[in-house]
Design a protein that fits this description.
Elements (H helix, E strand, L loop, with lengths): L1 H27 L1 E7 L6 H8 L2 H4 L2 E7 L3 H10 L4 E5 H9 L4 E6 L1 E3 L7 E4 L15 E4 L5 H12 L8 E4 L5 H6 L5 E4 L3 H7 L4 E5 L8 E2 L1 E6 H6 L1 H20 L5 H8 L3 H6 L4 E2 L9 H9 L16
Parallel strand pairs: 1-2, 1-3, 7-8, 7-9
Antiparallel strand pairs: 3-12, 4-12, 5-11, 5-13, 6-9, 6-10
Helix pairs in contact: 2-10
Length: 314
């Protein structure tokens, strides 16, 4: 009898301990509200949400689509989001102004195999070369996004006068129609918006322009305000590791992530299935950010170049 009572007591104690542990784990779950441009570099985070990887790391993550990297940056700076997928351009400009953004994890890479930005125009457009853009009205998601930067860099590298460009801010999801109806002469977008617009037949691809900056560079990153990151170090470390692991998976499983990015962007899954998929960064290397810093400094959008290592949270 004593042995039976002792065994029952031990089991009850173990069950109670397990319940306490589960409650403690539930109490440790941290909610993170995030935003990003609805494009392919969001795929690792979408996968980490869908697969439960964030939940297993004690993170309850939501991701909202935004119209531009600049809008995301404003939301993170204003406290609407704890973390955002921000284009390098507004991130670098903010750093130069003393706004304490830091990079927690890499986002989308531009590579020779998978360039990010594509310049579109109507099929009957005379725009074929960088010089043909001189004096034209072009659509960009933001005046300070990577599309506007790569377009100017492309023109500059080929001796065209980029200062004659007239840029108009248009949500990239509406860019294809804006070009087709003549609201703008041309515009730049990335995947899957680019392939979605091309699939309509109303626009065609003039050129990829990314290599005017560098053969390989980091175009977007998952960022937070430094005071928040410093105050939530363990959370940010778990977030960064989960995104890195999800990026490795996403790079190797394009077919398995088609539906995730199709749903997030509203682009048909068949279009996503056949487009160039964005390479997700699996590490943070300042050398992949420095060319963007240098290009922005070249255009005098920041007072002087700085070491890209300053952007990486440590």
């Amino acid at each position: 009898m004593a042995h039976s009572l002792s065994r029952r007591s031990a089991l009850a104690g173990a069950a109670a301990a397990l319940l306490v542990a589960r409650r403690a784990l539930a109490q440790q779950v941290t909610t993170i509200t995030m935003a990003g441009l609805p494009e392919d570099s969001a795929t690792p985070v979408l996968y980490a949400i869908d697969s439960g990887a964030f939940k297993r790391a004690g993170l309850d993550v939501t991701l909202t689509g935004q119209r531009s990297g600049s809008a995301v940056a404003s939301g993170v700076a204003g406290g609407a989001y704890q973390i955002g997928k921000i284009s390098m351009y507004p991130l670098i400009e903010a750093h130069a102004k003393g706004i304490p953004f830091v990079i927690l994890a890499g986002g989308g890479m531009s590579t020779p195999q998978n360039p990010l930005a594509g310049l579109m125009a109507r099929p009957d457009s005379p725009i074929k070369t960088p010089a043909d853009l001189q004096g034209k009205t072009v659509g960009v998601g933001s005046l300070t996004d990577m599309f506007s930067l790569t377009m100017r860099a492309w023109m500059d590298r080929h001796g065209a006068d980029y200062t004659t460009l007239k840029m108009v801010e248009i949500p990239i999801s509406a860019l294809g129609e804006a070009i087709a109806t003549g609201r703008v002469d041309a515009g730049a977008a990335n995947e899957p918006i680019l392939s979605g617009a091309l699939a309509t037949g109303k626009v065609h691809l003039v050129s990829h322009m990314d290599d005017a900056i560098a053969p390989r560079f980091l175009s977007t990153a998952w960022c937070a305000m430094k005071p928040w990151a410093d105050a939530n170090r363990a959370v940010c470390e778990r977030f960064a590791k989960t995104v890195r692991d999800a990026s490795v998976y996403a790079n190797a499983h394009s077919a398995q992530t088609v539906d995730l990015i199709a749903k997030f962007t509203g682009i048909d899954a068949e279009v996503v299935r056949h487009m160039h998929r964005t390479e997700a960064a699996t590490s943070l290397d300042a050398a992949l950010i420095q060319p963007v810093v240098d290009q922005i400094a070249h255009f005098k959008e920041i007072p002087t170049r700085f070491d890209a290592k300053e952007l990486i949270w440590a």
